[in-house]
Write a structure and sequence with these properties.
- It contains five helices and no strands.
- The chain is low in regular secondary structure.
- The N and C termini lie far apart (about 185 Å).
- The relative contact order is 0.02.
């Protein structure tokens, strides 16, 4: 350390010491004079201290112990007697005057004096129930699921809370205190199964007349409906004891086979009460008593032979049959498929075979047509009469797996083209996918279109022009019909002709562009002139029934859309300008009356006329029918026979009790001269069906 620093440190220590001395002297000077205690002489007699004659507090001589820290220490004599420290606990119930009371955990809330529950004051804190008369629930909380609040019914203050024995009896209703943990069993009391009343819930199976009174709901699905005790013994469902072999198996079991076998179940199922399988085949007997022959299939007929011919008896399985040897007749059991060749089975099949279909194709030296026929020709394909080996491998993997000849073969040997066959190019130039598909086809680069194509036939409105094909068609084309229409400057009539006139239409000799867009989207897509045009330039009115009016739009307002519906002129028009009276018939003469007399104007339909009332004169419109060989129409009032107005003119009512000859003339030959017509003829029956006298 540098010398200068050491000097500074010494000076600091000296100053601190000086300050301490000054402070000590000052403190001593502030104290008063000390009390002088005079001790007795050494030879003085002993001094006896008498507590009773001394006045003052105990604390002058005695310091309080830790336990007395909170007491009123001036009252030691309240507890302690002289000359000993023996103390008697005061009877004062205010414990907190002397004791610091710390409420233990779980203690009830303090609402009364401690001595209420702890009466042994000065001795111990022991709790004493005896003599207490209070509500238990003020101090105690009943456990969860505890029954009732009358504690005294089960508990006594002299017996610990947890050692209480409820006075159970078998006559009590258990469900007043206990919840049933299982289903309700009607008619069965708790004590019948739980015999340890007041001790344990342990189950003891009682003796009941029927198990189903409690366990019907527990019966498994498809379980036997028989008496439970045949197989089960309480107190447990399991293990069950199977009845012996003399019982009726079908009472509990549903067999997977027919139930009318001529032998008992145990004949085939000997493991009674253990397992159904394995089943044991009965000893040799008539097989057909239990087994039926399988149904015949398309290729197999089960033979009516002895079962042992093919099956082992007893068999391991029914289908475990042994095929007869090659010496048997195959067709005794098998049916040849349709179209099968009439050859010996062993030519293709091994006997016995692994499977019926496991046939061997004959070698290449055989004649194919003995078994196979050529496929039927189609519209485009004819099977060639060539050697089969030209296209098919022999023996083949599959009959249809033929090999197509190369592209240099003659296609027409097998195929029938859907087009003409005199094209100047080979088939492969347009159909390059030889042996794969006809389509897609490629257009040849052959320059002369007409060598393959001809002009389309002319139609009523189109004449194909004698122009270079490339004028309208792309070569090679995507589609032959995909032509390009010439521009509007072309002359339409080079290709098109005006449509023929119809009964009501005459195509005008106008410039085509007047009605048609050029080039057109569709030829018929023309634009009709407006209503101001002259209709008769293009249209011809119907030949019959139509008037010579020239104002077509007065009746046909839908110009350029449709002729119909037509609108009838108003009622003020003159009907005869358009209509003529219908021709007279044998019985009807159309009257020269105002049309509105019978017809509504404008009419819904021309024939919908209204017949005049009964006061009209019938002869104004109708004439009598012509007489026949046997009938003369009478000159009588029309209403005598006809309803006016009539539903139908011929709907007349034949008069009764009249003179028949007024209307009828007897036949010229074979008829008698009698005038009593009713003797043979009945007015209700046809004239030609007389009654024979």
């Amino acid at each position: 350390m540098p010398k200068r620093n050491r000097i500074a440190a010494l000076i600091l220590v000296a100053v601190l010491v000086l300050i301490a001395v000054i402070a000590f002297v000052s403190l001593r000077s502030t104290e008063g004079p000390r009390e002088t205690v005079t001790l007795p002489p050494a030879d003085a007699a002993p001094v006896v201290f008498d507590h009773l004659t001394e006045e003052g507090t105990c604390s002058i001589c005695h310091a309080p112990t830790r336990e007395h820290a909170n007491m009123e220490f001036n009252r030691c004599e309240d507890c302690h007697a002289y000359p000993t420290w023996d103390a008697e606990h005061p009877a004062d119930p205010a414990c907190d005057k002397c004791h610091t009371v710390t409420i233990p955990v779980g203690h009830i809330a303090v609402t009364a004096s401690c001595v209420t529950c702890h009466p042994n004051t000065g001795e111990s804190w022991v709790f004493v129930h005896t003599g207490m008369e209070t509500n238990c629930l003020e101090c105690h909380t009943a456990p969860a699921d505890h029954w009732g609040d009358d504690c005294a019914r089960c508990h006594e203050p002299s017996v610990p809370w947890a050692e209480t024995q409820f006075p159970h009896s078998s006559t009590m209703n258990c469900l007043e205190c206990h919840d049933r943990p299982h289903q309700d069993y009607p008619g069965v009391s708790c004590v019948q199964c739980h015999s340890g009343v007041g001790v344990t819930w342990l189950f003891t199976h009682g003796i009941f007349s029927s198990c189903v009174s409690c366990h019907e709901a527990d019966r498994p699905a498809a379980h036997s409906a028989g008496d439970c005790v045949i197989c089960h013994r309480p107190p447990s469902w399991t293990p069950a004891k199977h009845p012996d072999a003399s019982s009726n198996c079908i009472a509990c079991h549903m067999p997977p086979h027919r139930t009318d076998y001529p032998v008992g179940c145990t004949s085939c199922h000997p493991y009674v009460g253990v397992v159904w399988k394995p089943a044991v085949h009965v000893q040799p007997m008539s097989c057909v008593l239990c087994h039926a022959s399988p149904a015949d299939s398309a290729y197999t007929n089960h033979p009516d032979a002895n079962c042992e011919s093919c099956h082992n008896i007893p068999p391991s399985t029914w289908a475990d049959a042994s095929h007869p040897t090659a010496a048997v007749d195959c067709l005794g059991c098998h049916v040849a498929p349709a179209g099968h060749p009439a050859l010996a089975c062993t030519n293709c099949h091994s006997v016995p075979p692994a499977t019926w279909q496991d046939a061997l194709h004959p070698s290449s030296g055989s004649v194919c047509t003995d078994c196979h026929s050529s496929p039927v020709d189609t519209a485009y394909t004819a099977h060639p009469d060539a050697d089969c080996g030209s296209c098919h491998a022999i023996p083949p993997a599959a009959w249809t797996a033929g090999t197509h000849p190369a592209a240099d073969s003659t296609c027409l040997t097998c195929h029938m083209p859907p087009h003409r066959i005199d094209y100047p190019v080979a088939c492969a130039e347009c159909h390059p996918q030889v042996g794969v598909a006809w389509l897609p086809l490629l257009h040849t680069t052959y320059a002369d279109c007409t060598a393959c194509h001809t002009e389309p036939a002319e139609t009523a409105t189109t004449d194909h022009p004698e122009l270079d094909c490339g004028s309208c068609h792309t070569i090679p084309p995507a589609v032959w019909q995909d032509g390009t229409h010439p521009a509007a400057a072309a002359t339409c009539t080079d290709c098109h002709t005006a449509p023929g006139n119809t009964a009501t239409t005459d195509h005008p000799d106008l410039n085509c562009g007047s009605c048609h867009a050029i080039p057109p989207a569709v030829w018929q897509d023309g634009m009709h002139p407006d209503a101001a045009s002259t209709c008769l330039d293009c249209h011809m009115p119907p030949a019959t029934g139509h008037t010579a009016l020239t104002d077509c739009a007065s009746c046909h307002p839908q110009v350029g859309v449709a002729w119909l519906p037509a609108l009838h002129p108003a009622a003020t028009a003159t009907c005869t300008d358009c209509h003529t009276a219908p021709g007279n018939t044998a019985t009807t003469d159309h009257p020269d009356l105002n049309c509105g007399t019978c017809h509504a104007i404008p009419p819904a339909a021309w024939t919908a006329g209204t017949h005049p009332a009964a006061t009209a004169t019938c002869a104004d419109c109708h004439t009598e029918p012509a007489e026949t060989a046997t009938t003369d129409h009478p000159n009588a009032d029309c209403g005598t026979c006809h309803v006016i107005p009539p539903g139908i003119w011929t709907d007349a009512t034949h008069p009764t009790n009249t003179n028949c000859v007024l209307c009828h003339t007897p036949p010229a030959t074979g008829h008698t001269k009698r005038t009593d017509c009713a003797s043979c003829h009945d007015p209700s029956r046809p004239w030609t069906e007389p009654n024979t006298p």
